[in-house]
Specification:
Layout: H1 5-18, H2 26-35, H3 57-63, H4 76-89, H5 92-104, E1 109-112, E2 128-132, E3 135-142, E4 153-159, E5 170-176, E6 182-187, E7 196-207, E8 211-212, H6 218-234, H7 242-252, H8 259-285, H9 294-317, H10 342-349, H11 359-370
Length: 390
């Protein structure tokens, strides 16, 4: 069927007529919405979608506004990274098993990519996966894992062949976070919280049925995850933004205003509008599940803008901006930039230029893959991983 705005809106209204959110259990409502193809309309039928154009999701979301949602802030890694990777590389059985509980929020996902010695250069990762019959035995350490403390599953890249160059010897898996040998430890941040974790994998046995893609093809699979991650971070639509919060303070507190702060606020407001419109254009251009390197530009802009806006807010509020509400150690489910005070926003924004790909690496990607500039010399490109200096 060729879907358009009228037909997709009619389907959403028909769904609501048969599933009153006031009387239907929240989880049952979400499961029914997935089964009706109204979860992510651009996914195939039977997998939460209708095979419709991606842009029609906004029509569905408008029709279902005010109904129970799947708490996207809590399950962002599953929605933005795991799901499109599973769709692109998963078997029919994997798609059937994972996508529905992922979207409804019944199963939370995390990302086991970065390591203490492989952050910006992910391809040097050392976590090993050794095959034993129909299982893989995984040993290693991952770090900066958001939400690992409440995750059921993880997307994992591990080294399966140390005798080939670093990009060719990796394999991509789904990791059971409840499996024996998985240990999650909190990493306390500058905010006082521990949304991040380090994860130790000791003799973790994963069945081969949890492998995504071919053996040794993990780098290509991971690129799908990383490109989607950057779009999810930098290009996601938001109802309220940090620049809006600062502008609200500016309007309500005229005694804080100075000419210099006014000029900076205007410049950042323009930057925020440019980023918002660019993000909208990027989402419209995305082929289903296959974003390009342009998402790196959005993520780079997002990090810079967040840090500059949060710095302006602290300066605008003067001594009030130095206050901090609560240093109590806790392990939150989500990152709340808008619901907290200026001090939290300022400290937490410092991580934006690291998480989801460092700004330095993103500049390289933009230079080489978007602008077509010459690549940096890479002496280790054809060297077996086991022979790399460490």
């Amino acid at each position: 069927m060729a879907w358009d705005e009228t037909s997709i809106a009619e389907r959403a209204r028909a769904f609501l007529a048969g599933h009153d959110p006031g009387t239907v259990d929240r989880l049952e409502f979400l499961r029914a919405r997935f089964d009706a193809g109204l979860a992510w309309v651009h996914f195939p039928e039977g997998l939460g979608g209708l095979g419709a154009p991606r842009g029609l999701q906004a029509v569905v979301d408008l029709e279902l506004k005010g109904t129970p949602d799947n708490e996207p802030g809590r399950i962002g890694i599953g929605l933005g990274m795991a799901a499109p990777t599973i769709l692109a590389f998963g078997t029919a059985e994997q798609k059937e098993r994972f996508l529905r509980p992922l979207w409804t929020g019944e199963e939370v996902w995390c990302q086991l990519f970065s390591e203490p010695g492989a952050g910006s250069d992910l391809a040097t990762l050392a976590t090993r996966a050794v095959r034993e019959g129909d299982e893989w035995v995984v040993d290693g350490q991952k770090v900066w894992t958001s939400g690992a403390h409440h995750s059921r599953w993880a997307i994992l890249v591990a080294r399966t062949d140390p005798d080939v160059p670093k990009h060719r010897g990796m394999t991509y898996f789904v990791c059971d976070m409840t499996a024996p040998g998985v240990e999650v430890r909190p990493l306390r941040q500058i905010t006082g919280e521990a949304e991040f974790n380090e994860v130790f994998l000791t003799g973790v046995r994963l069945p081969d049925s949890l492998r995504l893609g071919e053996v040794g093809d993990g780098w290509r699979v991971a690129q799908t995850t990383l490109m989607n991650e950057r779009v999810a971070i930098g290009g996601a639509p938001t109802r309220r933004t940090m620049i809006g919060v600062v502008a609200g303070t500016w309007r309500s507190r005229p005694e804080l205003r100075t000419h210099d702060l006014h000029q900076r606020l205007l410049r950042l407001w323009v930057d925020a509008e440019v980023m918002r419109l660019t993000a909208a254009r990027l989402r419209e251009q995305l082929a289903a599940g296959h974003p390009g390197p342009e998402g790196s530009g959005m993520k780079l802009s997002f990090a810079r803008l967040h840090q500059e806006v949060s710095g302006l807010e602290v300066e605008l509020l003067r001594e009030e901006g130095l206050a901090y509400d609560d240093w109590t150690f806790r392990r939150p489910d989500t990152v709340d930039f808008i619901g907290r005070e200026a001090g939290y926003r300022y400290l937490r924004a410092k991580g934006n230029s690291i998480e989801g790909g460092t700004s330095e690496i993103l500049r390289n990607i933009i230079a080489e893959r978007v602008l077509g500039l010459p690549a940096e010399p890479r002496a280790d490109k054809d060297v077996a991983w086991k022979d790399l200096p460490r």
